[in-house]
Amino acid sequence: MALLIVVGLAVLVLWALSERGVERARLTGPIVMVASGVVVGLFVAKDFNDHLNTAQAEKLVELILALLLFVDATEVRGGPFGGEGRIVSRLLFLAMPLSLLAAVVTGALLLPSVSGPVLVVLACIVIPTDFAPASPILRNTGIPARIRHIVNVESGYNDGIVSPIFVFALSLAGKRADMDAFEALLDGLWAFLFAAASGLVVGGAAGIVLRGTRRIGFTSARSGRFVLVLIPILTYVVANGLQANGFVAAFVAGIVYRVVRGGSRHADLDPAETAFADDVGQLVSMAMWFGFGAVAVLVFSNGFEPELVLYGAIAVVVLRLAPVLLCLSRSSLGWRERCAVGLLGPRGTASIVFGFLAFNELPAGPDLPPLYAMTVVVMLSIVLYGVAAPPLAVRLLRGRG
């Protein structure tokens, strides 16, 4: 494990020193980190497995997700839905639930031996989108700015919205599997309410206090940036103390903080204020991608699972596109634009974190379906969305009306 940590830190330093060169080579940070993790994983896979399945690793992964969800929630520009309320709300509250349902049904057909709660866990792993492995898409001027903005805003919210469903399904499938369904639902509801309350109080209080202290010149811009990194950590700790979910609380805190900090005019946060939190989030995200590369070796070394590979491929290619086309019909987007929104859906950090948490929580080995499915969808996303999807989307939209 020490070798993995040392090499991982060294690769992070090398990536930071060569980021622009990597981008000029049409590569992304996640691709470099995954490739490095795969190489190291070939030598330390067994040792990594022993350290991955621990309570300490689980808490670390949860804390990383809390930070990333908070950053996502604070970065949305142009109001709660980025000025695209009708489109984004359809994607989040119509298309995504349909995608989750379709993923559960597909899983039931392809994986008949897997229990219902685990199928829901699988769906929560393979459906949320994240543009970390395909960030050039968001800078590709061949794709209309509106399309890039819509999918970016959506990806900032969907993992936070899926999180409570994931936590509830995981509790039914994991250590609380012997609990009555109604009792588990009630327990999950209370945990969600406590998480939401924690995020509301901490995020709201931080936003009010920071807005006031900045107005009277009591807080510097530098210390304000520190606060943005500390808020999700504090929220996570408070929620855990209340036996609630820390990363759900951090997501709520991010939304509330952004609204309160913006004041009565609902102004966007200054990018300079969120820059440090964004940088820290990107750094820990890169570490997650390195760990994912090592996990991929661990997963595929246990054999080829055609059903899970097919499930992951269907999830990436079909289970998002079809619901998006259905739910965006008769919207302000043309047919080509709807197709582009449906096609631009890479999976990334949220899928990795949910896969790791499922691996820790569920009683199974390294060939656990959630971990395998996570590896398949993320690897496919790196290949498809890092290479094939951008030119395809540009070609699709070139002749739009």
UniProtKB/TrEMBL annotation:
Residue spans crossing the bilayer: 28-45, 91-111, 117-138, 159-177, 189-210, 222-238, 244-260, 280-302, 308-328, 340-359, 371-394
Main location: membrane
An MF annotation (GO) of this entry: antiporter activity
Record InterPro entries: Cation/H_exchanger_TM
Protein's GO biological process: proton transmembrane transport
Boundaries of every Cation/H+ exchanger transmembrane domain copy: 14-393
Keywords for this protein: Antiport, Ion transport, Membrane, Transmembrane, Transmembrane helix, Transport
Domain of life where this protein originates: Bacteria
Keyword Transport annotated: yes
GO CC terms, sorted: plasma membrane
A Pfam entry, by short name: Na_H_Exchanger
Membrane topology: Multi-pass membrane protein
Location of this chain's protein in the cell: Cell membrane
Name of the molecule in the record: Sodium/hydrogen exchanger
Organism for this UniProt entry: Actinocatenispora comari
